[in-house]
Amino acid sequence: MEDTKSLRELVKNKPFLFWYIKDIGKLSKESIVEAILTRGDFDDLLGLINVLGINKVSQIFFKQISINRKNYNKKTENYFRLFFDKHKNHV
Question: How far apart are CA 52 and CA 64, in angstroms?
Answer without folding.
Answer: 16
